[in-house]
Design a protein that fits this description.
mainly alpha, 2 domains, 9 helices
Amino acid sequence: MMFVRRMYFVNCLLPFVFIGFLISGVFWSSAAERDPLQPRVPLTLLDEVKTITNPIHSTQENIQRGKELFEGIAICSQCHGVGGKGDGAVAVNRGLDPSPRDFTNVEFHKARTDGELFWVINNGSPGTAMPKMTGPGMINEEQAWYVITYIRTFPQREGETMP
């Protein structure tokens, strides 16, 4: 009897489960990053936010701490991917539109200030799936600066094999 149930599942139900995954987007890649150079900070705040500077110096120790946060408690890599290309498991499995920022994009780094990245981490990114990432049960503002210090290293590592 158990064998008959298993065969019914494999032959009859499993194809429908697979089709359901396809329809829901589980096997589709995420949408393209929309307007990668467009600021995500409201224009009314942009000038002020651009003046905010990162208090964390870019040292190997601080970059490593930022990497640990990015891949750990800050959960950045779940959407942005371990390599920072915006191809993390959540982005791909949920088909986020627009996709998360591609932190390997040199032009993005030239256009956006640390203050802007800090604002997005603290407030989320309007019109995207990026939520506020600081607060109770999340990272604190100091940790956000370490994450930004790490994010800034992605363009230099483009093409390298990630550890």
